[in-house]
Amino acid sequence: MTESHTHRVIPLQDLRPLSLPLPVAAQQPGQRISANGLLADTRARALHDLRISVTDRCNFRCNYCMPKEIFGTDYPYLRHADLLSFEEITRLARQFIAHGVQKIRLTGGEPLLRKHLEQLVEQLAALRTLDGQPLDITLTTNGSLLARKAAALKAAGLQRVTVSLDGLDDAVFRAMNDVDFPVADVLAGIDAARAAGLGPIKINMVVKRGTNEQEILPMARRFRASGMVLRFIEYMDVGATNGWRMNEVMPSSEVVQQIQTELPLIPLQASQPGETAQRWGYAGADGQYDPGLGEIGVISSVTQAFCHSCNRARLSTEGQLYLCLFAEKGYDLRQLLRSGASDADLANAIGHIWQGRSDRYSELRSALAPDTGAPIKRVEMSYIGG
Ligand code: SAM
Ligand code: SF4
Ligand code: SF4
Known about the structure:
The protein has 12 helices and 13 strands. It is α/β, with parallel strands linked by helices. It has a domain at about 10-205 and about 310-385: Aldolase class I (TIM Barrel, Alpha-Beta Barrel), CATH 3.20.20.70. A hairpin with a 7-residue loop joins β12 (about 320) and β13. The chain binds S-adenosylmethionine (SAM) and iron/sulfur cluster (2 copies).
């Protein structure tokens, strides 16, 4: 437990933000935006990815995300009636797709805690993109329930998974999840996902200086030549509760340097526009990239902002649309849905909201949030999903 966590008192109601009003233009009949595809925000960024948080609950208490001191037994999680139902999620997803979304990621909290999640996967898998292709559907999980659920998720139409894993050393891993969960069970989950055909699997490791940097090389060794892509994520100042300090961020450049001391790497091209990870391939004996050895990714959210290509919208567990991971507030699509809005109304609202988007928090980070550790009212990652 860090000092900042023991001294920090944050009123619970601050964590549940108020909504933003719908853009005025969305309510004007002469300015309707129809569901006819491509949208651009104020910085010419298209809408391509939708992340959907299906629960605000989690069985882990990773200190960088849901610290125990805040997310204790008395934490006021959402009631079931407040969550979007699977039908509501699917209906909204259809309108996002009509505006160009091609990829959906289910997240949370821990998405596998949502009962019958495979039913949602099945409903989403039946949708088609604007050009008639199946959606790219994936899920980010802590892996704890994957061994039990991988086969059913695959059968429902899930294509692949990303598993979060912050180290291989059991003591380090148990301390980081802060609920004493053994690493062997997550590794078994990864094996089950592989056996079920949920690939290519990505493994996400958040690197926190002073906590798990000694796990970088063991993780690299373990996942090299495994067919899985290990990605190192810089510890971010998301939410308002994790007591973030810049000196706990390990820049991706250092991660790459550390791996290079033992396993030579070659920079690779981005595989698609808007990709958040910089790719590095393992070099073979001839010094060239060897696809058999695979690649790693580094996600430098803090040291190298990628807002200029950020094409993601986030739908919170209770149906708030967030335009940035660091936004203070979202737009209440659930209220719109439940007030009897038609599909065209929903598409119109989404269109106007996206067109008004100007968020670029990471680019502005140093000006907005100096490293003071001062509480900032921002939405929690467990609520809008990572
Ligand atoms: N519970 C699932 C999991 O852990 O994979 C899904 C939700 S979690 C919020 C999504 C991702 O966000 C995880 O890979 C997690 O490691 C990452 N994450 C959470 N807090 C973070 C932080 N402060 N900085 C960087 N990544 C963070
Ligand atoms: Fe739970 Fe994922 Fe957050 Fe860890 S990172 S507390 S597993 S939601
Ligand atoms: Fe996108 Fe916001 Fe992250 Fe920038 S800070 S990359 S706009 S989510």
